[in-house]
Design brief:
Layout lengths: L1 H10 L7 H13 L13 H27 L4 H23 L7 H18 L15 H8 L14 E2 L5 E2 L14 H16 L6 H16 L1
Antiparallel strand pairs: 1-2
Helix pairs in contact: 2-3, 2-5, 3-4, 4-5, 6-8
Length: 222
């Protein structure tokens, strides 16, 4: 009963919703995690709503494509590579479409796709994509990855956070490049660094670590 209440309260998901309904609601919810960073070229609310719906509809279809692509692979390494390629293709499609009404970046596209996939995982915990999911990048995760703060036990303490200067290093609120301005090269290098660190840990997947690390930073920042 509690789970059904939370699904409705947070995602507006009801017992009568099928998988496509769930995917659509997760995509719409994910939009809220990046919308404040978007610089629109229009003030027309109807146009904004139209393009948001376009992306959400696309993400519903692409979720199934991601699952099918992974299921068709013969090895775990191949599955991750295929997932990464499909993930990049989807992000580029989001950018291509949304750039018609805004200055849209790879950092924003990854947030939309990654948060949608994370929300689906919260509801469908046995998703075949779980092991391959990317970490949704925001300032909390940047801090969790690149901070030496002794109060944050889940910090990876890596020097891989993109900086405004064009280099990488530890996380700094003043010198780190905002995630919403990242390009693909910065993004995938960041993800690869996390994967390498997690592979040497007790976590089964990066997204498993992300859940604990993000909450810890959120609590610390209160």
């Amino acid at each position: 009963m509690v789970l059904e209440f939370l699904k409705y309260a947070y995602f507006n998901i009801t017992k009568g919703d099928d998988m496509n309904d769930i995917l659509s609601k997760c995509a719409n919810k994910a939009y809220m995690d990046l919308c404040r960073t978007i610089k629109f070229k229009t003030v027309d609310g109807n146009i904004k709503a139209e393009y948001k719906a376009k992306i959400c509809d696309m993400l519903v279809n692409e979720y199934n494509a991601l699952c099918n692509a992974v299921n068709a692979c013969s090895s775990e390494n191949e599955e991750q590579e295929i997932f990464d390629n499909e993930h990049n293709r989807i992000c580029e499609e989001i950018i291509k479409t949304y750039s018609e009404i805004s200055d849209f970046t790879y950092g924003q596209a990854q947030k939309w796709l990654n948060m949608m996939l994370k929300y689906v995982l919260l509801i469908e915990e046995d998703s075949v994509l779980k092991s391959y999911l990317h970490i949704p990048v925001d300032s909390y995760i940047m801090q969790a990855v690149g901070s030496n703060n002794p109060k944050l036990k889940y910090c990876l303490k890596l020097e891989c956070v993109p900086k405004k200067s064009g280099t990488v290093g530890k996380y700094s609120e003043s010198t780190s490049k905002p995630w919403s301005k990242w390009n693909y090269e910065e993004y995938i290098a960041f993800q690869d660094s996390i994967r390498t660190a997690i592979a040497e840990s007790d976590y089964n997947s990066p997204i498993e670590w992300e859940n604990e690390a993000w909450i810890e930073v959120a609590e610390y920042r209160k």
